[in-house]
Design goal:
Spore Coat Polysaccharide Biosynthesis Protein SpsA, Chain A, 305 residues
């Protein structure tokens, strides 16, 4: 008999946040769910810190032994969920705090839509009750969802902060691209799905994203994560390429705008940042990772990975 839902949580050296996430998941009104913790080789004592939560019935812990990034962590976690023959997959980061009825509302949407969707995404708020800027879903490559008045709002891209899918969709469409490491892996993956299937924001399914700020990523003012932007610009160019000429033109305009913002800043790292923007975008022109698919047996749907 299948276990129904796997909530996949990717974590790395944020044990205090992870505890809050686990508590929020255990408090869900819809209880037919297991929690899969994917630890990207944390060195802060994460396993010892959450040990009392781990049992063989509800919470399962996997350590990847090294930092695979968010993309690699979700890739790894989804494989584990398919091995476990779960029917649905619910993705999130360790700083995601789902409302107690979050999963219940996603399940209700699945039933109401009769399974005819690619992915479902929750509305994500920041700690002050405003929408979390980095997690607002997109209706096109250039435009974010502005209003959530309808019960289900059609979108083409969403983040991995509370993303709900059927396992059969994942098997058909493949896994997140682990080579992305971080940034834009969720945009690429959800866009891959929405090209074939209508996908929605479920407007009564809510989470809080417990980030340090609600400004999103901005290389012009961010000095703490400069090297990580190498992934951002490379990956975003890949995503833009898949949208054709208009996508490429949009990304080129975005690159020029970001260079201008860096030039106008008083930051001492401006030349280093400009080099990262240009060189990483250039790498994105030729970046062509292979999409990984999972082969399963038709009887018993047992994973062959």
């Amino acid at each position: 008999m299948k276990r129904k839902i796997a909530a996949i949580v990717v974590t790395y050296n944020r044990k205090e946040m992870l505890i809050q996430n686990i508590e929020a998941l255990l408090n869900q009104t819809y209880e037919d769910m297991d929690i899969l913790i994917i630890d990207n080789g944390s060195s802060d004592g994460t396993y010892e810190f959450i040990y009392n939560f781990i049992d063989n019935q509800k919470i399962h812990y996997q350590n990847t032994q090294r930092n695979l990034g968010g993309a690699g962590g979700f890739n790894y976690g989804i494989k584990e969920a398919i091995k476990g023959e779960y029917e649905y997959i619910w993705l999130m980061d360790d700083d995601c705090l789902p409302n107690e009825k979050c999963l219940e509302k996603l399940i209700n949407a699945d039933e109401e839509l009769e399974g005819r969707y690619g992915f479902l995404s929750s509305v994500t708020y920041w700690k002050d009750g405003k929408l979390c800027n980095m997690n607002i879903q997109k209706v096109s490559l250039y435009k974010k969802l502005k209003e959530c008045d309808e019960r289900f709002s059609p979108v083409i891209m969403a983040s991995f902060v509370s993303l709900f899918m059927k396992t059969e969709t994942v098997i058909e469409m493949g896994l997140p691209i682990k080579e992305f490491f971080i940034w834009a892996d969720d945009l690429e993956y959800t866009r891959r799905i929405s090209r074939k299937y209508p996908s929605y924001v479920v407007n009564n399914s809510n989470v809080i994203h417990d980030t340090n700020s609600n400004t999103g990523s901005n290389i012009a003012i961010d000095d703490a994560r400069i090297e990580r932007y190498r992934y951002a610009y490379r990956n975003e160019f890949y995503v833009a390429r898949k949208e054709g000429v208009n996508g490429i033109l949009y990304q080129l305009c975005k690159i020029l705008y970001h260079i201008a913002k860096v030039l106008c800043s008083k930051n001492v790292n401006k030349w280093r940042k400009m080099k990262i923007i240009i060189s990483s975008s250039y790498r994105g022109i030729f970046f062509n990772p292979k999409i990984e698919f999972i082969q399963v047996k038709t009887s018993g749907r047992k994973s062959c990975i």
